[in-house]
Amino acid sequence: MRKLQLLLFFLATIAATCQGLDEVDHGRNYNIYPLRLKSGSGGHHIPGLTCSSWRLGVETHNIIEWITVPEECEGYVGNYMLGHQYREDSEAVTIHAFRYAKSLNLTGDGKDTWVFDIDETTLSNLPYYAKHGFGVNAYNSTSFNEWVNLGVAPALPSSLKLYWKLLNLGIKIVFLTGRPEDQTNITVANLRNVRFTKWEKLILKDSSFSGKTAVVYKSTQRKKLEDEGYRIVGNIGDQWSDILGTNTGNRTFKLPDPMYYLS
Ligand SMILES: [Mg+2]
């Protein structure tokens, strides 16, 4: 009798859940129970859910100063980066960046500039990270620089589109990157190979900034630009350190990057 009661209760629960999901699917009534955390049979969180919360925390800068992607999130981050979502999230950023740019009253005096970061903003190192655990492995400067020195990083498609649209509006482009100055030639060649062919300035990190944070380095360089009379109308990067600090520009845009964190 007890077993029968349990079976009836179980069937009733399934029926109620299915009905609830059905209602959500039809967009009519949003019941609270489909919003419960998904859990496995033992009550363990499905790994993807934990990792998606981790990614949100990273992108909103609630999770900071992290060294590597959590090991259990390698598959999640890999799927995100290689799948359509990364591209769609990037496109959402650049579409809004261009809407903003179009709304500006540009002076046409050649001083309106847009600052682009390079790695994971202009050029993608995804082919490298795909072979190195999508950020699970600790940063290795030797192997990363070997990759950079190949000069074969592809363009981020949505950033390339934004770049050309901004140029067509008459906005000057400044590339501001944490890459060291000895990578100037290969960076120029790589940019040109993937159709980033014009810029007002290309600023790489000189040795006087060694040991300084990206926030300090980039703020200093942006201040120099403004001291030279440039107006930074927009600023786009994949790291919070690209868009924090001083002289950040009139508007900043953050591209997704759940693979590494630079302060
Ligand atoms: Mg970057």
Key phrases:
263 residues, alpha/beta, Rossmann fold, 5-stranded parallel sheet, 5 strands, globular, binds magnesium ion
Describe this structure in words.
The protein has 263 residues and is an alpha/beta fold. The chain folds into two domains: 2-36; 87-254, HAD superfamily/HAD-like (Rossmann fold, 3-Layer(aba) Sandwich), CATH 3.40.50.1000. Helix content is 45%, strand content 11%. The chain is built from ten helices and five strands. The chain has helices spanning 2-25, 47-59, 74-82, 84-103, 126-130, 141-148, 157-168, 184-193, 214-227, 240-243, and strands spanning 112-116, 172-180, 201-205, 231-237, 252-254. The protein has a five-stranded parallel sheet with strand order 3-2-1-4-5, sandwiched between helices. Helix 4 packs parallel to helix 7 (157-168). The relative contact order is 0.14. The model is unreliable at 9-27, 33-38 and 40-44 (pLDDT under 50). Residues 117, 119-121, 237-239 line the site of magnesium ion.
CATH superfamily of the largest domain: HAD superfamily/HAD-like
CATH C-level class of the largest domain is Alpha Beta
Amino-to-carboxy terminus distance: 63 Å
User: What is the number of helices?
Assistant: 10
| Small molecules bound in the structure, each named once | magnesium ion
Oligomeric state of the chains in view: single chain
Q: Which range best describes the helical content: under 10%, 10-25%, 25-40%, 40-55%, 55-70% or over 70%? A: 40-55%
**Overall radius of gyration:** 23 Å
| Largest β sheet strand count, sense and barrel closure | 5 strands, parallel
Percentage beta strand: 5-15%
Overall pLDDT level: 88
